[in-house]
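Illustration: ABC transporter permease.
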Amino acid sequence: MKSFLGGLALLLVVVLSIVAWAVLPWPALLAVAVLFLLWMQLTRVGRQAGSATSVGVSTLSQRIGSSSVVVIGIAGVVAVLVSLLAMGVGYREALSKSGSADTAIVMRGSSASEVSSVLDHASVTVIQEAPGIARDASGKPIASPELVVAANLPLSDGSGDEGSVQVRGIGEQAWALRPEVKLIAGRKFRPGLRELVAGKGAQRQFAGLEPGRQIKLGSETWTVVGIFDAGNAMDSELWADADMIASAYRRGSSRTSVFVRLTDPGAFDTFKAALKADPRLQVDVDTTLSYFSKQSEGVTKVISAIGMVVGVIMGIGAVFGALNTMFAAVAGRAREIATLRAIGFRGTPVVVAVMLETMLLALLGGVLGGLVAWLLFNGFSASTLASGAVGKLSFQLHVTPQLLWTGLKWALAIGFIGGLFPAVRAARLPVTTALRES
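Result:
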């Protein structure tokens, strides 16, 4: 019964420690670390723990093979976890950068996204005259009625397969509405002609999108005349004249959405209230910042969940690796530990020494894994089907400091679990038994 209760108490310590480690912010964890260092410097037991730790660390070079198992195992967990989470961060940033607080999007009421929205010509006209919309130098409202459709194009990987790309028919004010969009090659398309410009992300994904090349959209042949860089989700799209896209896809005068630039962010409430109060309209109104952020939520959660599940599975393997290594280390140092106990070292310094040794290896693994993830995946280009869209979204993985901190916390948590049980065993081993077995 005593052994059972001791094991239960140890398991409770592990659970509470992991929960606290996951929940506490870094300033609180830093404060705990400072208090621990003060304890090691100012107390007799702490100084004993420091001496025992220095002895154990000094022998790591003699156990380089077994120690590297812990380091490499934890590095693998951290590298995979951080890279998967970086995918979610990159996806979210690509979409969130597509919007701003001083631009708004109007769609048909109850539409989940642009592709499920249809606005007739009369509604588009009313929307463009609503109060709160900024106007250009000539007095025209900075509003762009737009039409989103899908097209299939051959992929650039040479496989011969086709992928779906989102084609956006835009109005003449679309460029003023999105000043972040810059042409990096060629020129803008001319209204009334079957010309288009491609985002640099779309050009990377699909074949035949170089300026001067011709592609098939619908049943028509279109000429690529330019490449643009938006620095956001728009980079995955093709842009053309809205009237020409509507003609090619038989959409008449309808549009899927209307984008507007507001006089300032504070004008959004006035703009939205005016459209909601108009009996001729049944529309949903949102800032583009809010709209695109919502579009990223579902996929980001899925990617993060996958990363966590994979991290847990790999982490369990790393914990067992650490347990095996540290149990072997404790067994190999049984005489040394017994000698320390015999000359007056209590169980606590022994536990702390073994724990610190394991945490040091875990820290090295965490730093190595984070470095690998940053070197290999930061800025790495990827693409996936976008939520609420009809084509692939091209984005870059972002290994942020927050993700590196998350990976480091996972590494130290693995080291804590992997070192605790061998440490407790070392402290509980009777001195006479340890000396006899050695």
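Reading the tokens back as a structure: Residues 110-281 form one domain.
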